Amino acid sequence: MADREGVDKNVNHSLQQEFSDWSTYVFIVLLIIYFIYKYKSDCSLYIGSGSTLTNRSRMTGSMLTLLFLLFSVSVICQIVNNTTNFNKICTNNEANNAAISIQYCLLPWIFIFGVTIVLLLYRPEVKHVFSFTIGYLFVAKSLEKIFEQIHNPNAISVVATKGRIDQEVILSNNLTPELFEEQWAVLIPKLKKVIPPDSKHKIFELTVMKDNIGEFMWYLLSGLLASGYASYLVSSNGCEKSVQQLSVDFYK
After folding, report:
1. How far apart are CA 121 and CA 123, in angstroms?
2. 3-state secondary structure (DSSP) of residue 83
3. What b/e readout covers 160-171, taking b as 16+ CB neighbours within 10 angstroms?
4. H or E element: which one contains 165?
5. What's the distance, CA 117 to chain centroid?
6. CA-based nearest residue to 191, from 149, 250, 150
7. CB neighbours of residue 219 within 10 Å
């Protein structure tokens, strides 16, 4: 029994050492491509409608299809990746290895990444955890530059610190695509009467970028968690051999 446990531990250790994780890099690349396309789609939808975009209107049929493809391809890649790694250690047992990989990959991806998709679709405000922090870091300089050009110093009490306009920064960080028109209406009395015609659109594009970065972070972290947990389950499983394989090994 002790020998058997020692063999299992060695097998698990070998599995963890041999595992390569190229499927995670595929997932990250696909996720970046998806959000580049989503950013362009959101901006073009706003130009076409000329009104505030809701979270539902931004998730068009094509975007939902792309999100489903992202999910499906990521899961398939990890199943192939984990099965290939498993076969390096547990030889001559490919069918059982594939079954284990499918089982242990599907569950984390459905219950972690799948739940994240549903959460962001029906409760988009949770994106603000990242969009108002990490997302804002990416667009802060550009937003400040625009507000420096269009703010009305007579209408806004400006507190300048190191060249930054603090009050406009606060306003711009609270902008969201869903409430952009209402928030812009609040800003109008505080702006110059004549502003560059593309200022509103540029601010909207930066707002969408900030919002999409927040959504990207949710998908990235949940995908990495699902991928890591699936790989852990497979690598911790050890080799389960069929009766025929045990018989062959016994008589070798």
Report:
1. 6
2. helix
3. eeeebbebbbeb
4. strand 164-165
5. 9
6. 150
7. 20
Q: At what angle do helices 22-49 and 199-235 cross, to 10 degrees?
A: 150
Domain ranges of the chain: 18-238
Which residues have CB under 8 Å from 74's CB, separation 6+? 23, 26, 27, 30, 109, 113, 223, 227
Q: What is the model's pTM?
A: 0.79
SS3 10: helix
pLDDT tens-digit profile of 113-158?
A: 999 999 998 888 899 999 999 999 999 889 888 888 887 777 644 4
Give SS3 for 200: helix
User: Residues 141, 143, 149, 151: what is their CA dihedral angle, to the nearest 10 degrees?
Assistant: -130
Task: Decide if 106 contacts 78 (C-beta within 8 A).
Answer: no
As a residue count, the chain comes to: 252
Model confidence over 195-252: pLDDT tens digits?
888 888 898 899 999 999 999 999 999 999 999 999 888 878 766 655 565 565 555 5
The DSSP 8-state label assigned to residue 189 in this structure reads: G
Both tokens assigned to 236: 């911790």
